[in-house]
């Protein structure tokens, strides 16, 4: 008997700036999926030379094969009939357009942060519960799929080197300015500022590795207009000393930097692209060594994982919409703590 071949998933990219191009390039690598449409309200984005974001890797194509180009989301949904969209739009549009797609029976891979606050995230979760035709929602917390962070997750879970004694995470960047037109990142009402837009990557990693913290204590530096430029947080996870720092105030000559130092009872593990050994394990016995990791970036693995979910494959539990909402909730608490100078409990 001939085996039933699964139909190719029809993919649309919505928002074709830095991250839209990143998703586009990675969807093109997927067997069993085809990008049938790209949508951006600014048609110039289809031909504009891309300025790139804070990390390299976004697709620079201007020939999109037979993918249809749209500047209207509703028209795209009606005509292109995608099975799944990558929603790579400015953050205030995440909730309304995700809800619309799910209501139309279209699955959504929505960029992080899920929404501007936890209440808004709950609206997205409610929309996912009412989604038509079994459509699914995933928030693209790429670090959970990044090989050097997946390696850390495995060490924490397996306790290969004992328990975690201390962990510190850093994410440093110059202020974002790659978007076309008005700098929506600079407006905290639109992006949530450095805490919600950048630092949430590490907050979500703390949530993934240690669970929901009981409380946070944050301090921050603010710019001339009261905008947060830098945040440093101590997470009360019970047991280990866990901190994370995020900055949008670094110089452009420093470039983008993401790193961690995690001290276990029997080893120290350091990720730092600027060292000779970018990821290295320093055990209490034996030689330091560089673990071998799978090639590629989290952006590719997160898409592969979601595609497997959509195809009904058995997958490892990595992320849920509720966990994505919880990471926004932690950042909400961090921002309150930084402004008040007080420890903030998380309920
Ligand atoms: N995962 C990561 O590492 C990472 C990195 C950077 C940004 N992000 C997130 O990705 C999202 C997008 O960020 P970006 O850097 O790509 O922004 P961007 O400004 O480069 O791109 C956004 C695009 O959306 C388009 N757009 C705006 N309104 C639209 C509408 N109504 N319909 C269709 N298109 C519309 C704009 O024209 C623009 O091309 C944000 O939520 C951001 O926080 C994630």
Molecular structure report:
The protein contains nine helices and 14 strands. The chain has 347 residues and is an alpha/beta fold. The chain folds into two domains: 9-141, NAD(P)-binding Rossmann-like Domain (Rossmann fold, 3-Layer(aba) Sandwich); 143-345, 2-Layer Sandwich (Dihydrodipicolinate Reductase, domain 2). Strands 13-12-11-7-10-9-8-14 form an eight-stranded mixed β-sheet. Strands 3-2-1-4-5-6 form a six-stranded parallel β-sheet, sandwiched between helices. β11 and β12 (267-272) form a beta hairpin. The radius of gyration is 20 Å and the shape is globular. The site of nicotinamide-adenine-dinucleotide has 26 residues, from α1.
Question: Which secondary structure elements does this structure contain, and how are they paired or packed?
Answer:
Blueprint: E1 9-14, H1 18-27, E2 33-39, E3 68-70, H2 73-80, E4 84-87, H3 94-103, E5 107-111, H4 118-129, E6 137-140, H5 147-158, E7 164-172, H6 188-191, H7 193-210, E8 215-222, E9 228-236, E10 241-247, E11 257-264, E12 267-272, E13 279-283, H8 298-310, H9 321-340, E14 344-345
Parallel strand pairs: 1-2, 1-4, 2-3, 4-5, 5-6, 7-10
Antiparallel strand pairs: 7-11, 8-9, 8-14, 9-10, 11-12, 12-13
Helix pairs in contact: 1-8, 3-4, 4-9, 7-9
Bound molecules: nicotinamide-adenine-dinucleotide.
Nicotinamide-adenine-dinucleotide (NAD) binds next to helix 1.
């Amino acid at each position: 008997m001939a085996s039933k071949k699964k139909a190719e998933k029809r993919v649309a990219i919505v928002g074709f700036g830095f991250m839209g191009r990143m998703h586009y390039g990675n969807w093109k690598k997927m067997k069993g999926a085809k990008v049938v449409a790209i949508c951006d309200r600014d048609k110039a984005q289809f031909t504009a030379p891309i300025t790139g974001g804070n990390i390299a890797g976004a697709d620079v194509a201007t020939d999109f094969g037979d993918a249809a180009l749209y500047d209207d989301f509703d028209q795209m949904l009606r005509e292109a009939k995608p099975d799944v969209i990558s929603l790579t739009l400015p953050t205030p549009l995440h909730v309304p357009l995700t809800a619309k797609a799910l209501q139309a029976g279209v699955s959504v891979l929505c960029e992080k942060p899920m929404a501007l606050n936890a209440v808004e995230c709950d609206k997205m979760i409610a929309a996912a519960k009412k989604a038509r035709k079994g459509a699914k929602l995933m928030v693209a917390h790429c670090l959970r799929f990044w090989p050097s962070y997946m390696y850390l997750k495995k060490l924490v879970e397996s306790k290969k080197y004992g328990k975690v004694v201390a962990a510190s995470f850093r994410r440093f960047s110059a202020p974002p300015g790659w978007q076309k037109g008005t700098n929506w990142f600079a407006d905290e009402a639109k992006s949530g500022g450095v805490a919600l837009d950048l630092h949430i990557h590490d907050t979500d990693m703390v949530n993934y590795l240690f669970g929901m913290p009981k409380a946070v204590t944050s301090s921050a530096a603010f710019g001339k207009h009261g905008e947060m430029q830098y945040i440093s947080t101590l997470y009360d996870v019970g047991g280990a000393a866990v901190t994370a720092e995020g900055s949008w105030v670094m110089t452009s000559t420093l470039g983008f930097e993401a790193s961690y130092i995690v001290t276990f009872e029997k080893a120290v593990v350091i990720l730092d692209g600027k060292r000779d050994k970018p990821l290295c394990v320093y055990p209490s016995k034996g030689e330091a060594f560089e673990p071998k990791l799978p090639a590629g970036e989290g952006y590719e693995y997160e898409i592969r994982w979601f595609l497997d979910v959509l195809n009904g494959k058995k997958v490892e539990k990595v992320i849920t919409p509720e966990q994505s909402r919880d990471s926004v909730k932690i950042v909400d608490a961090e921002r309150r703590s930084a402004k008040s100078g007080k420890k903030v409990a998380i309920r």
